[in-house]
Description:
It contains 18 helices and 14 strands. By secondary structure, the protein is of the alpha/beta class. It folds into two domains: 11-224, 3-Layer(aba) Sandwich (Rossmann fold); 235-410, P-loop containing nucleotide triphosphate hydrolases (Rossmann fold), CATH 3.40.50. α13 links the parallel β11 (287-290) and β12. α3 crosses α4 (99-113) and α12 crosses α17. The longest helix is centred in the last third of the chain and has 36 residues, at 390-425.
Amino acid sequence: MAAGQEEGVAVETEAPVEEPRSFKDLGVTDVLCEACDQLGWKVPTKIQVEAIPVALQGRDVIGLAETGSGKTGAFALPILQALLETPQRLFALVLTPTRELAFQISEQFEALGSSIGVQSTVIVGGIDTMSQSLALAKKPHVIIATPGRLVDHLENTKGFNLRALKFLVMDEADRILNMDFETEVDKILKVIPRDRKTFLFSATMTKKVQKLQRAALKNPVKCAVSSKYQTVEKLQQYYIFIPSKFKDSYLVYILNELAGNSFMIFCSTCNNTQRTALLLRNLGFTAIPLHGQMSQNKRLGSLNKFKAKARSILLATDVASRGLDIPHVDVVINFDIPTHSKDYIHRVGRTARAGRSGKSITFVTQYDVELFQRIEHLIGKKLPAFPMQEEEVMMLTERVAEAQRIARMELREQGEKKRSRNDNDDDTEEAIGVRNKVAGGKKKKRKAF
Ligand code: AMP
């Protein structure tokens, strides 16, 4: 530890962010520079310019940056470079809050590390534990995990430990802690070596993150990039004030008006996400839902279709979408106004990224005025109204009403199918076996299953 510096106290990087240089200038080795080039990463992003050189010097790093800033590259490249210098199994662990993020990070490790033969494994919930145990037994170089499932393996998988770990990354630390993974993170910190490098990335510096920083990092360098400036400049934010009962018609009007763009539409509930997706599909739009009641495979499938541009409209809830790497969103529509003003910033942050321009349109009904005022207060400005031809909207209402009716029916059918599938799921041999055993003794208890 450098003299005069307390353990756990962040030192800000001195120089302001300079013009992007090449990865080579940052100290990245040739083979990894080639990998970046192959991914189409011509110049490093701001967070990469700030974080990579200090990480390569062997310092702990706190990165204040959001998904979309290139932060994965900022921690993956120094780890891969260190791995090249001293090859070792179970070398690095990346903790991340959600399964989707874990897969995205793993994709980037694979892409950057394929030419040097790096093996990585994703350890997340919702996936068979046995196959994960087998993958861990092969001792990959890098593990990307959500905290809960990793702790599960640390406690129950024979022969698996992280006692030789060299790098720990805590990605989206604010969200990890907000999702109540604090206990799991503590458990993990206790079983990995103290003598390691740690990178902590977070969109916000909350009290909990500061506490974690003090507990887990040594003499770190703080690298902060603000994407807000860019967002304000390139993002055109609008609102529309409309009666609640015509929301669907206004949505269809806007989608027609702005046809040819990619859209992300935010709804407040899983049910409304599903319903609106069905409604739009009935009207011929390529819409796809993403929400927490979908299975993991379906969520990844939705996201991939949207990413591959096979679908132009993604409907999502805040929870399902936060932190996802969703490229090329031209327009964000707040179909249901966010109840927490901060979610507004997360949502509109999905567009106007990396220097591109983008639009956001917030639907404000008679019930949302107060929430909308709070948003304007938070962002510190009054938004203009999105220009509309009311008569044209009203001409849509009949077709929309028919599509609503069909969507309601489809939603009901989906619900029934799901319920009957769940009943059938319980009719696996195992479940029936258990049921029979119980029923053999006390027939009345059967209902409990
Ligand atoms: P991240 O913030 O790490 O989730 O990255 C967001 C997106 O930016 C990913 O699709 C990366 O592949 C991409 N990306 C990361 N670094 C660069 C770079 N230097 N140039 C262009 N794209 C990049």
